[in-house]
Design goal:
The protein is mainly β. Helices cover 2% and strands 40% of the residues. The chain is built from one helix and 14 strands. The longest helix has 4 residues, at 124-127.
Amino acid sequence: MPDSWAQVPAGYKSIFNGKDLQGWHISRTTHQGTTPDIRVEEGAIVIRQNPYGQGGVLLSDKKFKNFDLYLEAKIDSFTNGGIFIRSSESGIAYQIELDESAGSTGNLLGERMPVSRGAKTAGREKVWRANDWNSFRIRMVGEVPHITLWINGVQMWDVTQPKNDFIAGATQGMIGLQSHWTALYSSTVVGWNILDSWAPGATHRFRNIAIKELPDNLKE
């Protein structure tokens, strides 16, 4: 994706300044790990595993209810992570999966909670730029969540949950960038598979993270 294309759309407010992690913090309560290697490099948030096996979640300081989120991500193969929406401090959230090796990038899952109605991308292969930057737009509204995903400007799915899946009925939460905890990357690990491994030196990169807050009374 050429750098000239990379820009926050009109009407969105940046929540990452491109210089440091001001406005963000690392969760110290998530089971994914509490010391992930997260840095800002060349205008992007870069997530690595160092030491290997240690994942974690980077959370926005601010909580959001109804919103339209935009960001650009560059995802290496042999990694597993996600974009959390309405996340708790411990990383309980609705999740947009980021896993190129498993082919599940863009699917809607639950992190530490069951999701009543998941979703899988349709036609992602037609617009996806492998080993390059791709844009994600996620719209989430309603106390009973109505969630829509676009990748590179093309709608992938649109789903309304039959109920609010948060145990305590949360209607707002943080934006999160997750690095999944892993087994060590080794062919000798018994039961090794893509979902629990992260290749040495591999990264998830995020830039141009911006949000448009929507009225609290929106349902659709």
